[in-house]
Specification:
Layout (H helix, E strand, L loop, with lengths): L10 E7 L4 H12 L4 E8 L5 H8 L4 E3 L8 H13 L5 E4 L8 H6 L4 E5 L11 H7 L4 E8 L9 E8 L6 H24 L3 E4 L2 E4 L2 E2 L5 E2 H7 L1
Parallel strand pairs: 1-2, 1-4, 2-3, 4-5, 7-11
Antiparallel strand pairs: 5-6, 6-7, 8-9, 9-10
Helix pairs in contact: 1-6
This protein binds glycinamide ribonucleotide (GAR).
Glycinamide ribonucleotide binds next to α1, β5 and α6.
Amino acid sequence: MTDSIQSSTAKRLVILVSGGGSNLQSLIDGCASGEINASVSAVISNNPDAGGLARAAKAGIPNVAIDHRTFDSRESFDQALSELIDSFSPDLVILAGFMRILTAQFVTHYLGRIMNIHPSLLPAYPGLHTHRRAIEAGDQQAGATVHFVTPELDGGPSIIQAQVEIDSSDNEDSLASKVLGFEHKIYPEAVKWFCDNRLVMENNQVKIDNSPISESGIIYNLIERSS
Ligand code: GAR
């Protein structure tokens, strides 16, 4: 169990997934190694077949499916989801490939303690098919952004971004795979900062160590070059 190496200050994470859960895995691994001062209290999915649930089970983490198709409204699903999350008393709620739009009421309940990762250089390309849209637009760069979640879809303030060059040979799949590799680096980084009490959102502004950061967030690639 990962709990044995966590300190008494360890944060409690609840992670929401809809799919394969490779970002989830990077966070499970970060907690298990002690890099992130937290334990994963639960993994929850709206998709009973999500690979992320199996990853959680393999790691001995409580995992629960709550199928949105069995609810008659978005509000009733979000209400049940919120009650389930709160039963695990999380310090931080993490969306890791969670592909449901959340109601403003849900998001407001977790404001400042809910994060998402999005596969674009926000504010470019909120929503779906980000890599296809970047290639079709002739962009030279793509990337991923970790941000605090606010009621505006993919609109909350950025914490950290990784930039990836788009090569002329790239297609949607090759670009997605390159970006995903960086997602697995930047998401554990952002979660680590939060769990070390270094990262907050105040009045829609992200601060690290009490200093406001730029609108794009910390640029991960520059961190990598300077270290
Ligand atoms: C990731 O690329 C993540 O950025 C994206 O879904 C993928 C999940 O992969 N999220 C969104 O598009 C949210 N709007 P994973 O299940 O292997 O972590």
